[in-house]
From TrEMBL:
Keywords: Membrane, Transmembrane, Transmembrane helix. The lineage of its organism: Bacteria, Bacillati, Bacillota, Clostridia, Eubacteriales. The chain crosses the membrane at residues 21-41, 82-102, 123-153, 181-198, 205-227, 247-273. This is Uncharacterized protein.
Amino acid sequence: MNTLLKTRKMLRHDWSAGLRQSMGIYALTVIYILSVCAVFDHQFSEWEQMPGVAGRPPAVWDYLAFLFEGMEPYDFKMQNGFRLPAIWMMTFLLFLLSVAKYPRSDMYGIGQQLLLKSKSRTAWWLSKTVWTILAAIVYYTVCFAVLLLYLAFTHGVSWQPSDITLTVLPGFGELSLLEQVLWLVAVPVVTLCTLGLFELVFGILYSAVVGVIAAVSALLAALYFNLGALPGGTCILLRSCLGISGGFSLGACLTIAAATSVLYAAVGCLLFYKLDLYGNHEV
């Protein structure tokens, strides 16, 4: 049985078992996105009262930009206090929690039996890698679906960004529809994949808690040391070319996120293949 066939069989198990373990976090994500929508609406109502602001209702892109805008480059010499973009951070943290527990628990559960049966550590790791990528897509889809439903019952679904987004992210108004989709769908999804695979390496090697701590530490480092190559650093819109001159371009964000995703997956596969994580040589 070749590696790809073994991977496909393991993935069937991972897909159903992993999804069941993540349902609680997905339910929490629904509540979270609704809360973020309420916060944005409050800010939007205050924005509308300012003179010279057009009365265009908020659109899908406005809420997504609000989720992933992050914060401006942090200058330790100029800043007097600790700042944290709570919404940006929480959006990624919920995803980390949704994928934290399953890979490690499966490693000592049914997954161990599948590993013994297949005798392929590579297939086992590839299955977990693909599952993490699918989990990122599912998580983003949940966020997007809740947002669409919220708009359908409140302002109506619109794709024309309002003045608040065009002010915060001036470059957004110059984008085509395809570029808008790439910035607010593709970049976040690929960044989630990068973050999830980074967490997966530490989660499998050590524990789920260590995986979350490592990923959160990487997010904080990306924020405060302006390290775009770290997980999460490619999806800080206020530091992209949309928000500042000389910021990351769309191509750079997608390339860096995709390349680091492949790197983490490859490093994890090598370590899982070489290290005796089970304390014996039977697996």
